[in-house]
Write a structure and sequence with these properties.
Blueprint: H1 19-22, H2 31-42, E1 51-54, H3 58-73, E2 80-83, H4 96-114, H5 120-145, H6 151-161, H7 166-177, E3 192-197, H8 203-211, E4 215-221, H9 225-228, H10 238-248, H11 259-273, E5 277-283, H12 287-302, E6 306-312, H13 320-337
Parallel strand pairs: 1-2, 3-4, 3-5, 5-6
């Protein structure tokens, strides 16, 4: 519908402080929500024409009204578009009709808000573009696993993609896969590890992992690997397309209906990449992540896979030295086993 979607994740650098969001959110709210709220409330008028939100977690479920109230204080009005994603287990409840109705309602709301008309032909073009972009992201991830691209450059490029239109994303990812001279290579030897979390770790943390001689052979990060792992079939009907995406989405702890597949998906990723270890980077105050860490680490250790867990909070680098020491010790352990 000729709208440009930007994904408001990883805004730590754009919102260095959080004075606006601190007036509205508790201090135990995760950095994703705090930086998102700060960016929206402090952004220049006219930068955004609307805000689309859904119930990915308890925090984001309740955020639209808080943002709406904060904008009203400033005399600003930003259209808020909401959909409710059912969190029922597919084996227990058939939500197909409800979900398709939510997608149809979303289309009607967008048409009315922005005076646009839905086009099935343009929808298929957009689906093909998204599919191509996801394939390019997977190809770039494979280059990281092969040691031809550093994970730091990979994560930075995909962060830029979240704020770019389709054509710019395609060009950026194509350059990444064709050997961008400005990018650094990774490691093609040493123990392989998978990194898991909500957001990619801050760049200094990635450098610490790669400087310790570890190869990042896969990622289970919500804003990276989990977002482009699913490849729904090309369909003209948006309801059918998004229902397929809903059911086939790569398991994520914030999507409760995928919980039964979560453990086996991670174990399969470990087996496929032949990783020797998994590094869990817990987003501070994300209960969804922390609730599953104990179970996942237990299942991995049963299979002889070492794990390292640490906590990140946005772009906090105050404890980088201590973190580097833990990563180096973990790398030495894996090298001895290797």
């Amino acid at each position: 519908m000729d709208l440009t979607p930007v994904v408001l994740w990883g805004l730590g650098e754009a919102a260095a402080g959080t004075p606006e969001s601190d007036r509205h959110l508790q201090n135990y709210t995760c950095s994703v929500a705090r930086h998102l709220t700060e960016f929206v409330l402090s952004a220049d008028t006219g930068l955004l024409d609307g805000l689309f939100m859904y119930n990915a977690c308890d925090t984001l479920r309740n955020l639209p009204e808080i943002i709406e109230s904060g904008l009203a204080e400033k005399g600003r009005n930003l259209p808020l578009i909401r959909v409710h994603i059912p969190m029922a287990l597919p084996a227990h409840t058939d939500v197909s009709a409800y979900f398709k109705n939510e997608m149809a309602r979303l289309i009607r709301e967008l048409e009315a808000l922005f005076n646009v008309t839905f086009s099935g032909k343009k929808f298929i073009e957009a689906v093909k573009n998204v599919r191509e972009i996801r394939q390019l992201m997977l190809a770039a991830e494979n280059r990281v696993a092969e040691g031809r691209l550093s994970f730091a450059d990979f994560a930075e490029a995909l962060t830029v993609c979240r704020f770019s239109p389709f054509d710019e994303q395609t060009a950026l990812l194509a350059a990444l896969n064709n050997g961008n001279p400005h990018c650094s290579p990774g490691h093609d030897s040493g123990p392989g590890v998978i990194v898991s979390g909500i957001l990619p770790p801050p760049t200094p943390d990635i450098h610490a992992i790669e400087s310790a001689g570890l190869r990042i052979v896969g990622n289970d990060i919500a804003s990276l690997g989990r977002s482009y792992a699913s490849m729904p079939e090309i369909r003209e009907d948006p309801g059918a397309y998004f229902l397929d995406f809903y059911y086939q989405h790569f398991p994520c702890p914030t999507l409760l209906y995928t919980g039964d597949r979560r453990t086996m998906s991670l174990l399969h990723l470990v087996e496929k990449t032949r990783a020797a270890g998994v590094i869990f980077m817990g987003e501070k105050f994300c209960e969804y992540e922390y609730f599953e860490f104990l179970h996942l680490t237990g299942r991995l250790k049963e299979r002889g896979i070492s794990t390292l867990e640490f906590e990140i909070a946005g772009y906090d680098t105050a404890h980088l030295s201590a973190l580097e020491s833990r990563i180096e010790a973990f790398a030495e352990l894996l090298k001895q086993r290797d």
